[in-house]
Amino acid sequence: MVTLLTERTELRAWRPSDRDAFAALNADPAVMEHFPSPLDRVQSDDFADRISSGLEKRGWGLWAMELPGRFEFVGFVGLNEPGFDVPVDLAETPPLEVGWRLGQAAWNQGLASEAALEVLRFAFAELGRREVVSFTTPGNDRSRRVMEKLGLHTDPRDDFDHPHMAELGHDRVTRHVLYRIGAAEHAAQEHDTARRQLRDHVGRFNLGVRSGDWSAMLRSLAPDAVFTAVGAAAGVLRVEGRDAIGVAYAADPPSDEIVVFDPVGDGDHGVVARWSDACRPERVLGDLCLHAGPAGITALAVTFD
Ligand SMILES: CC(C)(COP(=O)(O)OP(=O)(O)OC[C@H]1O[C@@H](n2cnc3c(N)ncnc32)[C@H](O)[C@@H]1OP(=O)(O)O)[C@@H](O)C(=O)NCCC(=O)NCCS
Asked: With the C-alpha atoms ordered 87, 90, 96, 98, is the resulting torsion angle positive or negative?
C-alpha cells in the first residue's frame, strides 16, 4: 500500500485507533455541514471500514492523515471513484475524485491543500489518469477554495444534482458544483511549481551566504538529497544526504550570492536554469538543476561551463 508524505503530513493506512477521532469529527455538525447530517458511531465505523478496505485493496484511496509528531489522526485526504454516475461529460468514466475531511482543529493551516497536492501528483504520475475531479455543494467555500488552490477549475455548465441525494430527498445538499483538472494542465502547473522551488532555493541559498546560517536551505532538502557540482571551478564533487551537505557547507561556505535566469523544465518535476554570480550577472557561469519530491529537494546539481 502506498504511503504519501508531504512536509507536514503523512497519508497512510487506517488503524483501529483512528476510529475514535474519526467518529468525533463525523459527529461534529460543522464538519458535516455540507452533508445530509452528522454520522453516529455505527455509521462512522462503517464508513471507516469501507474506505480502509478500499485503500488496502487498490493500494490507493482515501488515506488516513497523520501530522507526524503532532497528531496521529486528523481526518482523510485522497482519491475515490464515486459510486454513482456523475451526470457530466468527463474525460474518464468513472471519474477519479480527490476529496478530504478533517477535524476542525486542523482547519485553515493549509493541510488539506498540502496533502491533496501530493495526491494529485500521485493520480497523474503513478495512476496515469487523464483527469481528476472534485465536487461539493455550492456553499462549501472552504472545500471550493482547496479545489481552486490545487488548480482545479469549474464551469457553471458542469453543476449537477447528486442522484443519491436527490433520491433520498436531501434537497439542501443535492445541488453540486464540479471542479476538474486534466493531465496536461497539471503537468504545466507542476512545471511552474518547479520554477518556484528553484527561485525559493536561490533565495534560501543567498540568505545563507549573507547570514552564514544555512538552516533554512538545509530544511528545504530531503533527508537523502544529493548535491553535485561539476566543472572547471569544482572538479567533480558529490555529497549525499542533507546532513553531509550541511557539513560541507559549514566547512567551505559559498561566499557569493547567485542569480538564475529563465528556468526551463526538464521533465520529471525537475527544472534547470542558467546561473551567475549576483555581482556579475552578465557573466553566465553554468547550469543549476533542481529536482524535488514530497520530502523536499532531492537533487541539486551545479555545473560550471
Ligand atoms: C474542506 C477542508 C478539508 C479544508 O481543509 P483545510 O486544511 O482547512 O484547507 P486549507 O487550509 O488547505 O484551505 C482552506 C481555505 O479555505 C479558506 N477558508 C476558510 N474558511 C472559509 C470560509 N468561511 N469561506 C471561504 N473560505 C474559507 C481558507 O482561508 C483557506 O484558503 P487560503 O489558503 O486561500 O486562505 C475542511 O474545512 C473540512 O474538513 N471541512 C469539512 C468537510 C468537508 O466539507 N469536506 C469536503 C467535502 S467536498
From this structure: negative
* Full residue range of the structural domain in which residue 28 is found: 4-187
Q: How many domains does the chain have?
A: 2
Choose the residue to mutate in 34, 80, 108, 135 for probing ligand 1, maximizing ligand atoms within 8 Å of C-beta: 108
Q: Is residue 233 part of a domain?
A: yes
24-63 tens-digit pLDDT: 999 999 999 999 999 999 999 999 999 999 999 999 999 9
pLDDT digits (tens, 9 = 90+) for 253-282: 999 999 998 776 655 557 889 999 989 989
Counts of helices then strands in the chain (DSSP H, E):
8, 15
| pLDDT at position 284 | 93
Question: From the alpha carbon of 109, which atom of ligand 1 is closest?
Answer: 11
One-letter amino acid for residue 124 of the chain: F
Cβ-contact 98, 132 below 8 angstroms? yes
> Based on the domain organization, do 129 and 236 belong to the same domain?
no
Mean pLDDT rounded to a whole number for the chain: 92
Ligand 1 centroid to residue 278 C-alpha, Å: 40
| Confidence band for 302, pLDDT divided at 50, 70 and 90 | very high
As a whole number, mean pLDDT of residues 109-135 equals 95
Same domain, 125 and 257: no
- CATH code at position 100: 3.40.630.30
233 and 131 in a common domain: no
**Under 8 Å CB-to-CB from 200, ≥6 apart: which residues?**
220
Residue 147 alpha carbon to ligand 1 centre in Å: 9
Residues framing ligand 1 (Cβ under 6 A): 31, 34, 99-102, 106-113, 136, 140-143, 145-146
Return the C-alpha cell found at 80.
Answer: 475515490
Measured N-to-C along each axis, helices 19-26 and 41-58 cross at an angle, to the nearest 10 degrees, of: 120
> Strand pairing of 62-67 and 71-80?
antiparallel
Mean pLDDT value across residues 170-190:
94
